[in-house]
Each structure stands twice: as structure tokens, then as C-alpha cells.
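Quick start: what a row looks like.
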Amino acid sequence: FMSYSFFGTCANDYEQLFGCLETIFSQTIQPDEIILVNSGEKEIKKVILEKLSDKKVRLIYIRKNLSRVKALNTAIDFLNTSYAFRFDTRTRFSKCYAENSLKLLNDKYLGVAVVGGVPDIISEKNNPESKLCAEIMNSSYIFFYPKHRNKKYSGFCSSIYLGCFKTNLLKEIRFNENEALLSEDSLIINDFLKKGFKAYLSSKIKVSYVSRSSFINILKLFNSYGFCRANTILISKRIFISPRHFFVFLALIFLLITLSRFSLLVFLPLSILLMNIIGEIISSRKIYKIHIPIYATLCQFSWILGFLWSLATILSKNKNKSNFID
């Protein structure tokens, strides 16, 4: 296989970062280098070098306070390998993550420029609230069944969690550096697709994501997701990045028109709750958990509020300019 790097950013979530790095160090095929942009308050280079002392992995460490997308592009500037795999502090990689990704990137029949896997959401702590948060994030119906939330799916796609890239193309396309919060995963894959390249999800690329352990933080996360999605639409000038967005939009418009026609808009939350209950019943879980749809509905409305707030503050000069989500 050709050489590859892991690159990513952090901002004060150092314990999560160290957990992620351990899974990078245990790859069956070791990376040639790890590139980290530290935008946090602590100096951690020495700690990382100690963890790397018995490994033939080069550390490129940049300490600079940047928004996430600018930090990612800074890391890209330092890439020296043929392939580049992005990491997030809450990511946990399976041992064969890099090996399986490299196989797909080198598959001439597929001809793909970026690959990835669907993350399995795991709880941060061993308590009921933390487990609840992981169950919420693992429920694909909350996100209206995107391919990149279906762990059994393998095929072409319009969004990938993090991503494993061909470096030369990544350096050419790069992350969009608009400073307002945006969905950089979806946007960069969209930019790859617009240039005629293909993105591929594989069920063989195993990866996990450590969920936040507080439901309040999950609500804030969904609010940020909605805010990011609106900004992504404004930046990309594309309302529908994939056909799924179009059909979800049509379904919501139909629901709103139907309820308003009969003066039943007050029942909108109950209608969405009912759809979530159906989603829970047909989900792949062995035991249905009817309380999950209730929390899911709250998360979805938090997303809607974030989306609307972004649209309402289009001209605001005080928009959040950091892409690090607490």
C-alpha cells in the first residue's frame, strides 16, 4: 500500500483526543504521520510524543487558535503522503480501518476518490443518560434514514463521516473556509461530487463515535446541526445536496399543508412523534424503546430552531465563527 496520514484538530477535549489516538496507534497498517492542529489551551505535544516513542510514526504538531475548517486546511497543507484520513477527537477506529480504506481507494474498478464508514455511536459513560444519548444518535430515523447513518450500507453516497481521501485531490478541493458554522463533512463531499469524483461508503470500514453524555448537550448538538445545515445551503447555493433532502422537504411541506388546511397545525409535534414511533417499531433494535421517539422529537425541533435561527441571522456580524461544537 502507498503511504497515508491521519489528520485532525482538537480544542480542549484532550482526554477524548488521547482515546482516539490510541486507536490510530493500533492500526494493522501504521500511518506514516499524524498531523494535529491544537486550537486548545494546553500544550500536549510532549504527551503525544511519549505515546509515539516506540512507533515509527512522525508527528506534525501545529499549535494555533483557528476555527475548525481553517485548522483542517492548515493540516492539509502539511500532508506528505498519498492518502489522508481525517480523525475527530471522539472517533474510535477499528484496527483494520486504514487497511480496508486503502484497499477501496486502490480498487481501480470502483474508481473512488474518498471512502468512509458509518459510525456506531457508543456511550461516553456507563450511566442511563449517557446510554440514552447513544441510543438517540444511533436511531437513523431521527435523521430521516440517510445512507451515511445505515451501518449495513455499502455503495456510493453524498456524505461521509470524516472521510479517507486521495491527498492530491484533497489539497486541490480543500474544506470551505467560510467562518460561520457549516456541515463540512457534507459540503466537502458535495465539492468532490461536483468535480466528477466518486464517494463510497463501506460496511467493512468500521468506526465508532463517542456520544455526548448529557441530553442537554445532545439538544445543543442538534441545534448546531440545524444551524450548520442552513449555512451549508447558503454557502453551496444548493437547497438539496441529495435526493433524500428533496423528498424529506416534500414530505414536511405536505404535512404542513395538510395540517394547516384542517387548522390542525398544533398537532405538528404529535405527527412527527408518530412518525418517530413508527421508525422505532421498524428499526433493527431487538427491543423497541418507545421513550426514544419522544426524545427524538425534541431533538428534531431543536434542529429546526437552529436552522431557522441561522436564516434569521444571515446578515448578523456576530454569527458564531468557530466550527468547534461543544
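That is the whole record. The first strand starts at residue 4 and ends at 10. The longest helix spans residues 215-236.
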